[in-house]
């Protein structure tokens, strides 16, 4: 039997139909709005590109005139951008694409001053800028944000004249006030910047003299006065000044990063360690005379060495730093070599690795406070064998913090060679003997000579080295327990000086100032003398060398300091390693300089030709 529909049913049907039509129309309208927004964004991006190109042309003096004018294009690029400018003249030069790399560990924070590792520093280098930069060919200083500078006859005052066309990535102009603020911000005790304060304490004041002139006044002469002032990272006052009222918020922050450099964070306050990567976008307001090539710079977090190699092999990252153990095989790998540039090099600024012996823990001296014990440990650390067995010869022994090619180095000094007998004699002299005949030395109180060696867990070569050291130390009756740690945990242990011994590395410079690592004044919480090493004679030499501007007088002082460090062995100095790099052939204009490979150097000098680009966003 058929049923007839009621009026109410028809009304509900009509109402539902109307609602559906309204929803469809709304979705259509939203879709149109999104398309329109995308068009606007694309237009703005194109306009920004046009403005960048126009600004570059104006800054460089390359202004195209009509044929009837008969005037040739001229170039007036400042020295800091000359190499980058030469890149843009290559026939296949193009902007676009991404630069993609990998970090071997999670980053704890990107906030400048709060961060202490080289990974965060690499990211910050793309965002923050300074007054001057070093020429990679001549190693001389050149103006970046500074146009010129003058040094007073007594060396205590440096005056910089600044460019007036620099702005931060949020559009605010960069002025002398920002430079003065950056120094004052660092020197504020409530801000977590003890390492930087240790260096900048030689500066009496930094003051703005008008909008575009800044003056640095030193308390006393300092051999790196120009470098110290000129390489100060410039923080935007309007962005960081509010944190003077809430310093704890700054100290605990994870991603407060804003600057005037060629790249920027999408959100200068929004990066978090759990992001799984670090991504920088092109700064469309960049003031530079040559604009950076890449639209984005990305670092993926890939902690496993094998995974990084696989990722490189698959073309998902642009470079791979090979371990010595795999290097020879990769050079014979047709797939790798067909796609790669290959580089082996050790620049004069190559850092060194070391084992640091903690001399004070919880306010009490440790067994490593005894120089004889430290010397014995260095005699037991067979560096040539480590270099040969673990690093296959792609390294050289480190005598001290000073490079073997540096004027600071005394060429007559030798490394500690493996000597089991000398080590055993020194340990016995220090009171260590195998009293219960169990194969492990004990002190006079019967406590066994055991300790933990902290190291970064994701580095396979370091892990192999530590296992070798365990066997070497055991031959003398010293029981070492390998203690692998995650990177953030290691940094925390360093800051608190809560470890027995640790193996890490330091970066180096053309001339290395060792105040930060070895001066007694830096044996404090969050100071970089993490092993609490104190030697008044060394302190005096460091102070004298730092205050000596005359190089001919300063270098003998550094060499005296080096002799003390070799005698004291606060670290067992291990090695300086060669870089063994593979870089994807899509990356062009790779060159070796006196500072090493120019990839990632600023101003940026690399690009990808259009035909080889693969990231279009």
TrEMBL record:
Keywords: Membrane, Signal, Transmembrane, Transmembrane helix, Transport. The keyword rRNA-binding does not apply. Gene3D superfamilies: Dipeptide-binding Protein, Domain 1, Dipeptide-binding Protein, Domain 3, Periplasmic binding protein-like II. InterPro entries: Peptide/Ni-bd (IPR030678), SBP_5 (IPR039424), SBP_5_dom (IPR000914). The chain crosses the membrane at residues 12-30. Residues 142-513 form the Solute-binding protein family domain. Belongs to the bacterial solute-binding protein 5 family. This is Peptide-binding protein. It comes from Thiothrix lacustris. The lineage of its organism: Bacteria, Pseudomonadati, Pseudomonadota, Gammaproteobacteria, Thiotrichales.
């Amino acid at each position: 039997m058929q049923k007839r529909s009621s009026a109410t049913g028809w009304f509900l049907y009509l109402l539902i139909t109307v609602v559906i039509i309204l929803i469809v129309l709304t979705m259509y309208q939203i879709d149109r709005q999104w398309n329109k927004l995308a068009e606007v964004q694309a237009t703005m991006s194109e306009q920004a590109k046009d403005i960048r190109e126009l600004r570059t042309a104006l800054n460089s003096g390359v202004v195209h005139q009509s044929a009837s004018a008969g005037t040739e294009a001229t170039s007036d690029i400042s020295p800091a951008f000359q190499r980058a400018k030469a890149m843009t003249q290559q026939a296949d030069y193009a902007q676009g694409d991404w630069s993609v790399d990998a970090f071997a560990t999670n980053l704890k924070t990107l906030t400048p001053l709060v961060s202490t590792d080289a990974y965060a520093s690499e990211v910050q280098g793309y965002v923050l800028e300074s007054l001057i930069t070093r020429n990679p060919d001549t190693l001389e200083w050149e103006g970046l944000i500074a146009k010129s500078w003058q040094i007073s006859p007594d060396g205590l005052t440096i005056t910089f004249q600044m460019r007036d066309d620099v702005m931060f990535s949020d559009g605010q102009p960069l002025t002398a006030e920002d430079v003065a603020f950056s120094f004052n911000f660092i020197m504020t005790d409530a801000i977590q910047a003890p390492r930087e304060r240790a260096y900048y304490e030689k500066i009496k004041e930094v003051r703005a003299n008008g909008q575009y002139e800044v003056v640095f006044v030193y308390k006393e002469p300092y051999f790196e006065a120009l470098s110290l002032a000129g390489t100060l990272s410039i923080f935007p006052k309007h962005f960081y000044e509010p944190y003077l009222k809430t310093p704890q918020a700054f100290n605990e922050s994870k991603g407060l990063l804003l600057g005037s450099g060629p790249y920027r964070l999408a959100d200068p306050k929004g990066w978090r360690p759990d992001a799984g990567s670090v991504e920088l976008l092109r700064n469309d307001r960049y003031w530079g005379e040559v604009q950076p090539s890449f639209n984005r710079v990305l670092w993926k977090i890939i902690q496993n060495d094998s995974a990084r190699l696989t990722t490189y092999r698959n073309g998902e990252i642009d470079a791979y730093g090979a371990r010595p153990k795999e290097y020879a095989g990769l050079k014979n790998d047709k797939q790798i070599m067909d796609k790669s540039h290959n580089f082996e090099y050790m620049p004069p600024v190559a850092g060194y690795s070391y084992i640091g012996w903690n001399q004070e823990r919880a306010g009490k001296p440790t067994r490593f406070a005894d120089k004889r014990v430290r010397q014995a440990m260095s005699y037991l650390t067979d560096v040539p064998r480590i270099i040969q067995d673990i690093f296959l010869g792609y390294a050289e022994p480190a005598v001290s913090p000073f490079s073997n090619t540096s004027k600071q180095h005394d060429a007559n000094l030798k490394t500690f060679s493996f000597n089991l007998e000398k080590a055993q004699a020194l340990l016995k002299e220090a009171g260590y003997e195998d009293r219960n005949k169990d194969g492990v030395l004990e002190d006079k109180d019967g406590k066994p000579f055991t300790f933990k060696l902290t190291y970064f867990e994701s580095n396979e070569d370091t892990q192999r080295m530590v296992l070798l050291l365990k066997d070497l130390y055991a031959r003398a009756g010293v029981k070492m327990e390998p203690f692998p740690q995650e990177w953030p945990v290691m940094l925390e242990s360093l800051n608190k000086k809560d470890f027995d011994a640790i193996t890490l590395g330091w970066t180096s410079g053309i001339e290395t100032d060792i105040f930060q690592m070895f001066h007694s004044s830096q044996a404090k919480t969050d100071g970089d003398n993490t092993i609490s090493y104190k030697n008044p004679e060394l302190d005096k030499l460091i102070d004298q060398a730092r205050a000596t501007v005359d190089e001919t007088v300063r270098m003998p002082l550094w060499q005296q300091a080096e002799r003390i460090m070799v005698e004291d062995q606060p670290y067992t100095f291990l090695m300086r390693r060669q870089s063994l790099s593979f870089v994807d052939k899509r990356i062009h204009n790779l060159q070796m300089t006196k500072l090493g490979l120019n990839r990632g150097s600023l101003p940026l000098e690399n690009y990808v030709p259009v035909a080889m680009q693969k990231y279009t966003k």
